[in-house]
Amino acid sequence: MDDHTLAAWLAVHAGARLLDIRSQGGAEGDRQSNELLLRLLAEARPDDAVLSEESVDDLARLDRERVWIIDPLDGTREYGEPPRTDWAVHVALAIRGRPAVGAVALPAAGLVLRTGAPPVLPPARQGPIRLTVSRSRPPACVDHLRGHLDAELVPMGSAGAKAMAVVRGEADVYAHSGGQYEWDSCAPVAVAAAAGLHVSRLDGSPLLYNRPNPYLPDVLICHPALAGRVLGVLRRF
């Protein structure tokens, strides 16, 4: 199967495993999902490198053009609070540092969004801008955007769930500052870009992956019709 199909297949299989063992809690979910994804990737793409939130970082990946970047369970807290659906599985492939392939599964919602067959971008919505926000620890940029855009906040859990809310047209902007890693954003960014959304750092610069330090603290995903306005506000952040 091609890389796009493989990414979706992997995300779906990991999501199914997570649903089966949800009663065992987040730590066990992280462990089993990671082991499953690593095994399946080793079988399907043995020559590619892998960067996973749940594995020791092997810096040999820096010498590879193709690196799978995975978050086996994005939103461990939400996963541990059934019947919440705002948690995800991220599977992405960065090629020469660019997020070329991605799939984000929302297993409890029965959804997988992927490159190769991305969702159709909805038209720009009239009315207040809807800004996704963490229910527990909103980043500082959210208050700044809310004040300058008179935005409505849409609380939800994991990074993948927030990003996919924009992809699905349930929100207009996902902005994060204050700390993330490559596995938090690579798959969502790949899917969002394939759907025609604006993706960048908060300063408008490109998102680059497979760096020596996987810390990638900020991200912006929004409808392209809003990108200029949102970036203009963020430049004053």
Give a brief rundown of this model.
Pfam families: Inositol_P (PF00459). One of its GO terms (molecular function) is metal ion binding. Helices cover 34% and strands 23% of the residues.
Task: Chart the SSEs and their pairings.
Blueprint: H1 3-20, H2 26-44, E1 49-52, E2 66-74, H3 76-79, E3 88-95, E4 98-106, E5 111-114, E6 130-134, H4 140-149, E7 152-156, H5 159-167, E8 173-176, H6 182-194, E9 198-200, E10 219-222, H7 227-234
Parallel strand pairs: 1-2, 6-7
Antiparallel strand pairs: 2-3, 3-4, 4-5, 8-10, 9-10
Helix pairs in contact: 1-2, 5-6
Protein name: Inositol monophosphatase
InterPro entries: CysQ/Inositol_MonoPase, Inositol_monophosphatase-like
Binding site for Mg(2+): 53, 71, 73-74, 184
What do you see in this structure?
This protein has 237 residues and is of the alpha+beta class. It has 2 domains: 112 residues, Fructose-1,6-Bisphosphatase, Chain A, domain 1; 105 residues, D-Maltodextrin-Binding Protein, domain 2. The protein is built from 7 helices and 10 strands. A 5-stranded mixed sheet has the order 1-2-3-4-5. It has a 3-stranded antiparallel sheet with strand order 8-10-9, with helices on both faces. Strands 6-7 form a two-stranded parallel sheet. A hairpin with a 2-residue loop joins strand 3 and strand 4. The longest helix is centred in the N-terminal third of the chain and has 19 residues. The N and C termini lie far apart (44 Å).
